[in-house]
Write a structure and sequence with these properties.
single chain, mainly alpha, two-stranded antiparallel sheet, two-stranded antiparallel ribbon, 25 helices, 4 strands
Length: about 550
């Protein structure tokens, strides 16, 4: 009870439901078991009086370091479970259950139609190729599979006719087809440029959402200013050593908010692994290793259709990339375990998406006899493995890579392939990109549009993949430092605008879409941090 009281003080600004959720999460975690053991040991000491427990609990937590771990749990929960701004602003108003994750009904309907389309594609593939959604391997097959696990030689056995369920281009078509029944762009006043409302009147995204203004973006990314030291831009020997010493102190403290704040100015490769674990509150433990082994056993025992989709995706995208091909085996292993992880279903509480369901064999049409398929509820798109590939550069231990990948996916990446009006959602990011580019580079935007080469068609892959597979790996990790540090994906459209502005002169000379594609095809040589600084604080985001 005293521990509950201490936790209640930490969450005093939030309602009882938040407190109960955090308490339930702690009880089922390793931290909950550690707290119980610590209490028993403390109470067993002869000089401890039961009457003094209330006074001793805060002291004991701080001395044992458990205070920091508790704070990290609360901090992480609040970051991942913040409701949309519209709902936070009207807490006294009744919110229907279906609106708790998405207040706009036409977006909910569009997401439901998109999910049906994906399921139809999966079912058609099963029928055409005579492949079951899932089957149990024979004991002989399980033994063979376990033998091949290390070198993944079975990847050569993939049916080459297996195709991705959908590609980013298909998803972009869905986004651009969205329209709000309350907004008609044809009667829009072109002289009324409202940056906050997302008025990309020349854009492909024809709905209006609440966006950050340029000034709000500058405030959000204030620590990217040229007034502050930045790894990836100000790499001076003496300053580097001082910044690394500060990084060591942050790692030793183990406090997630401090880790996030540090990453806003980037970190060096030697410290990145420890700093990301601190900022994301990921602490690999023995139970995590056991759970990973359990997932691996599920892979050995059952064959799923999505296994072939993941395998094919790795071979065609990340595994075919000159920077990532050496990690092909590891990526396949991790993604197959990822597909079996039912703990990932919790992230559907934050999204408009619903996990796909399949009928049990022989029970087609009986709604009560369905199961979530695949077990994690996630069907990969073409290029999904790029979310995982860069992490293989940071850690060699599969369990650690897996835990960080899962945390990044459930905190950030799931929003990049789900329809939502959330400020971090793909719709808002695309609209932010179009609004910024149209507002501050109107001549460039209009020229590309007239040449039949719409800017978003080029930038969409960058945004949907969080630039993985497009930037050189060291630059990509510097970008992801900032995504974790600011807990925001809104840096992606800003960087996209910066790239267009940086190559403005070449783009203004193009006369057809293929020339624009050639200009923007390779961005691997670009330096991310100087571009972001130039975009936000120099000349790009200023009215022309």
């Amino acid at each position: 009870n005293e521990y509950k009281s201490y936790l209640r003080v930490m969450t005093r600004s939030y309602d009882e439901a938040v407190f109960n959720d955090i308490l339930a999460e702690i009880k089922t975690s390793d931290l909950g078991w550690t707290l119980k053991q610590a209490v028993q040991q403390e109470l067993s000491k002869p000089f401890v009086n039961v009457k003094d427990i209330k006074r001793l609990v805060p002291v004991f937590l701080k001395e044992s370091g458990l205070d920091v771990k508790l704070r990290n749990v609360v901090f992480t929960y609040l970051l991942k479970h913040q409701p949309p701004l519209e709902l936070r602003a009207n807490t006294c108003v009744y919110v229907p259950p279906e609106s708790s994750t998405e207040p706009m009904f036409f977006i909910r309907n569009a997401q439901a139609r998109w999910e049906k389309r994906i399921l139809k594609s999966i079912n058609t593939m099963c029928t055409e190729k005579s492949i079951p959604l899932a089957r149990m391997r024979t004991l002989r097959e399980q033994a063979d599979f376990a033998q091949k696990w290390r070198d993944m030689s079975f990847a050569d056995e993939i049916n080459s006719e297996i195709r991705p369920v959908y590609a980013p281009k298909d998803f972009l078509d869905v986004l651009t087809s969205l329209s709000s029944p309350n907004y008609n762009p044809k009667i829009y006043d072109y002289t009324d440029v409202n940056e906050r409302a997302g008025s990309a009147v020349w854009g492909l995204i024809q709905i209006r959402l609440h966006l950050k203004t340029t000034q709000e973006l500058r405030v959000l990314f204030n620590n990217l200013s040229t007034h502050y030291f930045q790894t990836g831009a100000d790499d001076i020997e003496g300053v580097n050593l001082e910044w690394q010493r500060l990084g060591t102190k942050v790692i030793q403290a183990g406090y997630s908010p401090a880790g996030q704040r540090y990453l806003q100015q980037g970190c060096y490769p030697t410290q990145r692994g420890s700093l990301w674990l601190t900022a994301l509150n990921v602490t690999p433990s023995q139970p995590d290793s056991q759970y990973y082994t359990q997932l691996k056993s599920g892979v050995f025992k059952y064959e799923l259709l999505v296994d072939k989709l993941f395998l094919q995706d790795v071979r065609l995208t990340a595994g075919n990339n000159e920077a990532y091909f050496v990690f092909e085996d590891l990526m396949v292993q991790l993604l197959l375990c990822f597909s079996r992880d039912t703990r990932l279903l919790e992230h559907f509480q934050q999204t408009t998406a619903l996990p796909p369901r399949a009928y049990l064999r022989g029970n087609v049409g009986e709604a009560e006899k369905t199961v979530i398929y695949p077990p994690n509820g996630i069907i990969p798109f073409h290029g999904f493995s790029f979310y995982l590939a860069p992490l293989c550069f940071i850690w060699s231990e599969p369990v650690t890579v897996y835990l960080v990948f899962k945390e990044l996916y459930t905190r950030f990446f799931f929003r990049l392939h789900c329809l939502s009006s959330h400020p971090q959602g793909i719709l808002s990011l695309c609209l932010q990109f179009e609004t910024l580019l149209q507002t501050y580079q109107p001549q460039l935007f209009y020229h590309l549009r007239e040449m039949g080469s719409h800017p978003l068609k080029h930038a969409f892959n960058w945004i949907m993949h969080a630039f993985a597979g497009y930037l050189e790996t060291s630059q990509l990790l510097l970008l992801w430092d900032r995504i974790i540090g600011y807990n925001s994906l809104e840096i992606l459209p800003v960087l996209s605008v910066a790239i267009f502005a940086f190559r403005r002169n070449n783009l203004m000379e193009i006369t057809n879409p293929s020339e624009a594609e050639a200009v923007l095809a390779d961005v691997s040589s670009l330096k991310v941090i100087p571009l972001l600084q130039y975009c936000l604080y120099a000349r790009i985001l200023h009215p022309v």
